[in-house]
Amino acid sequence: MTSTQLLSFDPALGVLTDGRWQAGRSGTFAVEDPADRAVIAHVADGDVDDATAAVDAAARAFDSWRLTPPRARSEVLRRAFELMHRDAEHLADLITRENGKSLADARAEVGYAAEFFRWFAEEAVRPGGDYGSAPAGGARTVVTHRPVGVAALITPWNFPAAMATRKIAPALAAGCTVVLKPAAETPLTALAVARLLVEAGVPDGVVNVVPGTDAAGIATTWLADPRVRKISFTGSTRVGSILLKQAADRVVNASMELGGNAPFVVADDADVDAAVAGAMVAKFRGGGQACTAANRFYVHADVHEEFVAKLGAATERLTVGASSDGAEVGPLISASAVDTLEQVVAETVAAGARISHRAALPDLGGHFYPPTVLVDVPADAPILEHELFGPVAPVVRWRDEAELLRWVNASEMGLASYVFSRDLQRAMRLGEAFDAGMVGINRGLVSDPSAPFGGVKQSGLGREGAREGLREFTETQYLSIAW
Ligand code: ADP
């Protein structure tokens, strides 16, 4: 597919400010297909002046957008939901080309991403509030939630559509205007989503997009600008921590969705087939490049052999390759991602682990790594301490529940977690003991627009989706009325 067939717009005019599509002041940058490294587009490279122009527009638009009736804001979001479904195949194609994930995963992402527009279209008209009397008398209290202001949104490459809609939708529902910087690896999907928002009737300046290679410059410009009152970031803990420090200078309201290190626990009474099915989703969806991906498997000794045999057989059956060839697992995002995985797997094998199963690798020249199961992994192996962001499943045997909980909670991360047991009460008891923002019980998928997505410890601050996702873009105000 050529880039003209792929795109119905010119990405070199990819800076959107005040409703106008413009060239980037730093020229353009290339976007590659990670399956074959072919350049698929040249995208506007926005600089710090483009970043400021975006805030100019967002600040102007805020005055009227915040006063736009909730129903009208809701209807823009609802139309965006419908337009995403109209263009679902096109969006899925874009995602597979710039991110590399399989077409099935890309289609699922488009559906998930669109749901944020629908969910927050529904939430926009239910802003909530409270009314009460002061206990001592003499006053009534009215509590309202006002939009926080211009919101800076910074998104990663692993879910190019969903990470954008999960932030844009609640911001707009709350009455905020936004400036968005998508990841330089995957800007095309965000531009396509922004075009749909314009088509859906979003007023000029409400949504502004600055793609660019100078991520630090753009972010610093936004966080230093007194008109920006909110930062919502999804990405690595390393960058999240830098942004939090910058946000501290002006006490900017911050929501952070950072790295994970999800444990996947299989108990002795688990339905092993269900656990394997859950593991395949939790581990290999998007090639393991999700912050919710199962990162370390703790399998009870009594079911270890059966689980590994079945997981291994399913892993070996996975087809790896370009999404255009119908493969189930695509390439990793970059050559360095492949290098990192090769190194950590080699170190783990040197420490006594064994590769029990592996899928076959295509000879395509892209950034491919074979889905791999590692067994006999020591419970203190370094591979269990870091987010792998790739299709490798290290498996540890457990017997003692107290020890298992120590292993699970030893991580500084606490985003998703998974537990499989036929005894629901036991699974819930374990899940409640995990230091994690999300627990999948007998399922390998936790993401849902109606549920509060987020983590504890260094996995982040705040929640996205659900009612809480709207609150992240509001500030509570109360009016105390003499009575
Ligand atoms: P990942 O490991 O998923 O690439 P990153 O945290 O590096 O995670 O990137 C997530 C987003 O943060 C991307 O949009 C990227 O361009 C942006 N980013 C990277 N470095 C910085 C930085 N120093 N300041 C602000 N944003 C950054």
From TrEMBL:
<keyword id="KW-0560">Oxidoreductase</keyword>
<feature type="domain" description="Aldehyde dehydrogenase">
    <location>
        <begin position="21"/>
        <end position="477"/>
    </location>
</feature>
<dbReference type="InterPro" id="IPR016163">
    <property type="entry name" value="Ald_DH_C"/>
</dbReference>
<dbReference type="InterPro" id="IPR016161">
    <property type="entry name" value="Ald_DH/histidinol_DH"/>
</dbReference>
<dbReference type="Pfam" id="PF00171">
    <property type="entry name" value="Aldedh"/>
</dbReference>
<dbReference type="InterPro" id="IPR015590">
    <property type="entry name" value="Aldehyde_DH_dom"/>
</dbReference>
<dbReference type="InterPro" id="IPR050740">
    <property type="entry name" value="Aldehyde_DH_Superfamily"/>
</dbReference>
<comment type="similarity">
    <text>Belongs to the aldehyde dehydrogenase family.</text>
</comment>
<feature type="active site">
    <location>
        <position position="257"/>
    </location>
</feature>
<protein>
    <submittedName>
        <fullName>NAD-dependent succinate-semialdehyde dehydrogenase</fullName>
    </submittedName>
</protein>
<dbReference type="InterPro" id="IPR016162">
    <property type="entry name" value="Ald_DH_N"/>
</dbReference>
<dbReference type="InterPro" id="IPR029510">
    <property type="entry name" value="Ald_DH_CS_GLU"/>
</dbReference>
